[in-house]
Structure formats: C-alpha cells, structure tokens
C-alpha cells in the first residue's frame, strides 16, 4: 500500500465530481497533459511462443541414466566441499528461477520463452510466464538515486520519487482499486488545478469512452465478473527523471503489471493473465512558478497498452477473456506483440500500432 496521499472521504469525492462538472470559475491557467494516447488493447492468443523471441530454447540433455548418476555424485562432492556454491541451482541464486534484479535500463531483447508452455494454476498463477521472476508489487519498480535537480534539492527529489511510486501503488496495485473502487489515494496526489485532467477524471468514471477511459491511468476489474488470484501482482519497470519546464522535476515511469485472474463465480479455477504496460510522465512543479497544491504533481502525458484486458470495450474496467470467449473471438487486425517485451519504448510500440485495431499477443 502506498504511504503518500490521504484517502478522500466519499462526501468530498462526490463534491469534487460535481465541482469539476460545473467548472471552476476564475481558475488560473495551468499546464495541460499532452494529448493522451488511446489504449491499444491486445487479444490473448493460445500460441506458446512469440515470433519475436530472440533467445532459443535450452537444449535437452539425453546421455542416459549413468550420466545423471555421475552428475549427482559430482554434485554431492561439491556440496560437501562448498555447500554455498550450489544455492542458485534450486532458485536461490542466479538460476533460471531466481528473482531478477530491478530493471535499471531498457533491456536489449525480450525475455526468453519456455520451450513447452505451462498452464497457470491457482497455486502458481504466474507459471509459464517471465513474470514468475519479476518483483512483487512495488518491489519490481526501481527508484533511481536522488540528486539535486531543477528547483528541488536532493532530499526533495527523493521525496518526489517516493510519492511517484506511491501513485503507481495507489493507481495500479491497491487491492480496493483493483476490485473497482475509486482510486482516491491516487487522485489525491494529482494537481487539482490541472483542469483538463480533472475534467478527464470526472468524465472517465461517470461515462467511460475511448477518449475518457480510466484505464489509461488506473487498473480496475469488475468484481462481479472476475477476481484476482492471490494477493500478488508482478511488476517490472523503472522510474527516471530530469529537469523539465520552469525548473520542474519531470519524472517518467514505465511499468508492466501482470494480473492473474479467475472468474468471480465460486469454484472457478481457470487462471488467465491480464498484462498492462503504462508510461506516465509527471511534473513536480515549483509552486513559485505554477499554481499547484503542495505534495501533488501535474501530468505531462500518459500511455497504456494492455493484453487480455478487453478490446474496443470501454466500460471503465479491464475485461479479460477466458478460454470459452477466446475460442469464439475473431482474430485482431493489428500487429502481433509480445507483452513481456520491454526492449522497445512505448512511443515505438504505439507508432508501430498506428491506427490499427485489436492486435494479437503472442503469449500471456
């Protein structure tokens, strides 16, 4: 759960929506968020391997039982001489099941694909997915080292970075928000004087549409239809920053979230995954130059790309499909995309998609 931002009471939330819809008379002019990128959603496919995979499957060894016995004997000898050396063989070190270090820069290729697809289960909802090695919640979102930037000193930058991660937690990881509740803690961190964003928020939750879709910023599922498996959401991403306009500290977040879900009906055990990648650029402005409430930020831009979250459905909720719906779905007319491929920027991914409709995810 995020540490920054206070929850807005229900009465205040309703008042906020009414005031935004009525308009704020005499409000000072504020910077607006760059044109929002419309979400391009991808349909999940049954194909086990992505066409873009850059790493071949591991070779199988088949020398016979006597080689296995010899290896076992050698392993016992190594354990006797140096037990700490083999920790990684069983997922405790640098083996294929070991957790990945936090992402510090964009990778140069997608994660490898398993030679044999393995079905996710209630006990292992990330089975067969690269996300099995990703961090849990905010642990998978690395913070850079703080340094004095723009109008902020080192300590202020560190606090802005922490609050940025708090926003990601409150908007895309909070259990209540994932169940469809209003993201009040996240909204409390947004500059209330950025009128175009406030208008967007009020409209998106009341009348979601392609242009005003709350999923551009928040992850929400309709609890009457689906529920998350367990209490872990896997993440991988990074936060960077630089000096922006008017000496502001401009922070860019690029994070992929993996949500395992089942149908809400009791006894459901078919696990599918919804994968959402968001890039959010925010500006921590100097109050001496921009009208802004202390401890809040202004949006610069935001983009989203989601897999198995619904295609051309604007209900305000992620709407994953299960095997029955996938079997009857028509193929998408957009490009094929590996949702775990973080080697290309969101700008590139959006540009490649162009005006195409629903694409096809090569794995989930």
In short:
The chain is an alpha/beta fold.
What does this structure look like?
This protein is of the alpha/beta class and 364 residues long. It has one domain (10-55, 109-361). It is built from 8 helices and 10 strands. Strands 1, 2, 3, 4, 5, 6, 7, 8, 9 and 10 form a 10-stranded mixed beta sheet that branches. α1 (10-22) packs across α6 (195-206). The chain is globular and about 55 Å long.
The biggest sheet amounts to: 10 strands, mixed
- Form type: globular
Q: What's the end-to-end separation, in Å? A: 26 Å
Count of the domains: 1
DSSP summary, beta strand count: 10
Give the number of helices. Answer: 8
Q: Strand share of the residues?
A: 15-25%
Overall radius of gyration: 23 Å
Fraction of residues in helices?
10-25%
- Give the mean pLDDT: 80
List SSEs in N-to-C order: HEHEEHHHHEEEEEHEHE
pLDDT below 50 for ≥5 consecutive residues: which ranges?
1-7, 20-29, 45-95
Given helix and strand content, the structural type is: alpha/beta
Features:
alpha/beta; 364 residues; 23% helix; globular; 10 strands; single chain; disordered N terminus; ten-stranded mixed β-sheet
């Amino acid at each position: 759960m995020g540490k920054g931002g206070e929850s807005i009471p229900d009465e205040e939330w309703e008042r906020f929506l009414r005031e935004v819809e009525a308009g704020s008379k005499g409000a000072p002019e504020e910077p607006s968020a760059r044109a929002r990128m419309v979400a391009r959603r991808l349909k999940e496919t049954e194909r086990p391997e992505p066409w873009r995979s850059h790493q071949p499957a591991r070779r199988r060894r088949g020398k016979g039982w006597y080689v296995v016995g010899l290896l076992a004997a050698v392993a016992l000898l190594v354990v006797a001489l140096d037990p700490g050396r083999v920790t990684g063989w069983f997922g405790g070190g640098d083996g294929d099941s070991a957790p990945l270090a936090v992402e510090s820069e964009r990778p140069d290729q997608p994660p490898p694909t398993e030679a044999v697809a393995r079905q996710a289960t209630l006990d292992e909802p990330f089975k067969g997915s690269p996300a099995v090695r990703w961090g849990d919640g905010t642990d998978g979102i690395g913070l850079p080292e703080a340094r004095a930037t723009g109008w902020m000193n080192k300590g202020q930058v560190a606090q802005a970075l922490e609050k940025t991660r708090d926003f990601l937690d409150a908007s895309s990881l909070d259990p209540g928000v994932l169940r469809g509740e209003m993201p009040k803690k996240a909204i409390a961190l947004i500059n209330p004087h950025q009128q175009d964003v406030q208008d967007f928020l009020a409209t998106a939750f009341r009348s979601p549409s392609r242009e005003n879709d709350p999923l551009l910023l928040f992850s929400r599922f309709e609890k009457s239809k689906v529920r998350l498996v367990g209490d872990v959401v896997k993440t991988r991403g990074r936060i960077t920053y630089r000096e922006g306009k008017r000496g502001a500290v401009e922070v860019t977040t690029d994070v992929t979230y993996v949500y395992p879900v089942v149908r809400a009906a009791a006894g459901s055990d078919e696990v599918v995954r919804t994968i959402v990648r968001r890039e959010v650029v925010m500006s921590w402005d100097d109050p001496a130059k921009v009208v802004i409430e202390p401890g809040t930020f202004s949006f610069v831009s935001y983009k989203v790309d989601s897999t198995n979250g619904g295609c051309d459905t604007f209900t305000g909720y992620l709407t994953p499909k299960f095997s029955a719906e996938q079997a009857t779905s028509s193929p998408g007319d957009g490009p094929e995309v590996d949702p775990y491929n973080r080697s290309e920027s969101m700008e590139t991914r959006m540009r490649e998609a162009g005006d195409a409709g629903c694409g096809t995810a090569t794995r989930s």
